[in-house]
Structure formats: structure tokens, C-alpha cells
Amino acid sequence: MSRRVVRQSKFRHVFGQPVKADQMYEDIRVSKVTWDSSFCAVNPKFVAIIVESGGGGAFIVLPLAKTGRVDKNHPLVTGHTAPVLDIDWCPHNDNVIASASEDTTVMVWQIPDYVPVRSITEPVVTLEGHSKRVGIISWHPTARNVLLSAGCDNLVILWNVGTGEMLLALEDMHTDLIYNVGWNRNGSLLVTTCKDKKVRVIDPRKQQIVAERFAPHEGLRPVRAIFTREGHIFTTGFTRMSQRELGLWDPKNFEDPIALQEMDTSNGVLLPFYDPDSSIVYLCGKGDSSIRYFEITDEAPYVHYLNTYSSKEPQRGMGFMPKRGLDVSKCEIARFFKLHERKCEPIVMTVPRKSDLFQDDLYPDTPGPEPALEADEWLSGKDAEPILISLRDGYVPVKNRELKVVKKNILDNKPPPGPRRSHSTCEPDLSQPALEEVLEEIRALKEMVQAQEKRISDLENKLCQFANGTD
Residues near 109 by Cβ (< 8 Å), separated by ≥ 6? Predict the structure, then answer.
């Protein structure tokens, strides 16, 4: 009789636990807009949540420590004229967030470390290039200031936020609505899923499709796809019988899946959240009340079911904390921010360990906040892996790098937020042609004033003569 050998894995006993009631964020009117995005974005400083808002679109930004009941008059970030559909924190600056909206624009915001008194209404820069609503945004993982947006005009645009310019527009690649877009680890390739049932791997700088697969899942409902650390593609979708399904694919051999597993029957689209350090993928369905997690390895069956975190309340959306925002002293390997109808509930995923020492097998060096490339370097064809940091002593978020962002992230003719500067510190880099243009305009205005003064004087003289002649 053969003995069944249990697969060895340090993540076999990962378990999820919600925080105590006083550590939740209460009284938040989570957006009811029908769109399959996560509605929540988190970094080591802030949690941002798309909320209901009259007369436009808004999201709320809360410092992580500001738990409990949120004041109904808490300032919002309001600048869009229609509902916000997606938000994403910049991986290289914890005070910069981008938002995409039904009003066809993408806006980039600078969030101060303190809680502002009034709502933030002025973005650092507004990016206009889409003709229909914009539902997807994603920052480049290694290049500074490079932001991707995808709209319902079937167009993917790459922006340089530092100048407000469009870098690339990927036209005529998608014939229908784009469901999701994801970068690979170094930002050299994109994976997209589309309503035309194709999964595409795209080289954005060459503007060409490297690989594509028609109907990786046979069902008609939306498909999601992400890159794994090894360059494989993990997908979630539906079978022809509307059962939810996950798949793992090698883009170099897209015809045959590495793994394909049926899961359950449900309507909610599964949003995958991937941790490249542990190779664990967490699947959260909108409307579900559970989070399933799987480990991806190079041993058959390649995608190994680990466990399910279950709760009573369905989720409206989900935020996923980057690795540098976790508490390494408690062996925390993931933290989710689950959106309910009126609150946000953090859920902590932990690997049980007896020792209080730093567990270096759980925490390999992870991508830090420093970009590896500038936008123009990446555009010219250069690639670089993320700059890694150690979490041995924990990660302390850096203070608001506002000056750096203003220098890099703002158009020359736009004043930075914050205290007004004196004239002695005005921008020294105003270009010569612009200066000459302003001087020329002043000269023209002076000439116009002198001409008008002469005309008024002549008219006054004539009036005097006329009055003298009639006396």
C-alpha cells in the first residue's frame, strides 16, 4: 500500500484573519458604479477608496493609522466630472496617486502627509487623450513617471506624467472592450484581455503583438490575466458551463496550458492579486465572501490550492498592500483591504512561526520605492529589473517627496501646491523663446495703450473746438 506524500511548502498553513473592529475604517460610502475594478488602492502610508459622490467622481484618501469612524465631512479628492472607475498609487512615490474616470480623463494627484482641511480639487496634471471613459490605469513597475491608461475606445495610452505628454498610443490592437492590462516584472511587456476573447502579449515600445491566444477560457464572461515572476501568464475566466476557471500559460507556447483548473459556479469575475516574492496568487471575486489562494510552482500540477479565507459579508472591492507595507515581526505575508457597503476591513494573511526572529525565507528582497529607469531611458529601449530592498529591519515610509515630484511631475508653467514662493526663487529654467514671447506681448500692449491715449487726446481736442464754436 503506497503512502501519500504531502507536498512540502512553507505556505501550506497560511491563514487569514480580520483585524479587530476598532482597526477598521467605518462609515465610508463605497461607490456603487458597475465596473470590474478593485475600487481600492493601498500603499505603506495611505488607503484610497472610490466613493459615492454627487455631481462628479471622487475618492477618499485616509492615512493607514486613521482607523475607526470616518467623519462624514472628511475631505475627498474631487476633480473628475463623472464617476471614478480606477485608482492606482505610484510605486515610486507614496504621495502620488492616479485616477481614471468616465469623463475620459486621467488625473494625477499629490496627497499631503497631513489630512487636508478641504477637499483636493486641483490635480498635478490632467492627461487627455481618450475619447471614451477610461477604466484601467497602471503605473510602470520600474520606470519613473510612466503611466498606462486603457479606455472604452479600445485604446491603450502610455504617458510621461513628468511632462504630461503621451509617449505611445497602442491603436488597432484591440477590436473590442479591454478587460484588464498588466505589466511583466521589468515593464518590458504587457498582457491584455479583451471582449474579443483574445489574450495578447504586447511589446509596447515596438507596438507589436508578441503572442496571442484566442479563448483561453471558453465562457463569454470577462477574463483576467497577469504575468508571473517567471514570465508565465496566469488567467481567470469561465468555462462554457459558466464555471469559474483558472489557467497558467507559457506565452512561447500559448496553445497548450501548463495548468487548467475548474473551481466553482459563480457570476463574480475573479480578480487575481499576485505576490512575486512567494509566488502566491490570491483570487477575490466581486460579490464573493471568500479569498482563495494558490501557490504557483514548477512541479505538477503547477498551481497548488493552499486554502480559503471565508467570511459572512460579500466584498464590493479589494485593496492589496505592497510587500514593503507589511509587518514582518508578525510573519505577515499579505494584507487585504476588503470593501463592504459602508466600511473597509483589513484582512491579514500570516504564516504561523514560533520564532520572533526575522524570517528571511518568507521575506526575500522586494521591490523598493526607487525607480530603476527614467521615462526617456525606458522609451529608448532600456530595461531594468526593480531595485530591491531588504525588509529585515522593517520598512519606514519616506516623508512626502513633494519637491522631487514638483520638479519631475509638473509642467513648467504650473505652480506647485503648498506655500507660495518669493519672486527671488522663481523658476530659473523658463525657456528663452517663451521669455521673448512674453516681452513681445508686453511691447505690443504698451503700443496699443499709447495709441489709445493719443486717440482719446485727439477726440478731447475736437470736442473742445466744437464746444468753443457753439458758444
Answer: 77, 79, 96, 97, 98, 99, 120, 123, 124
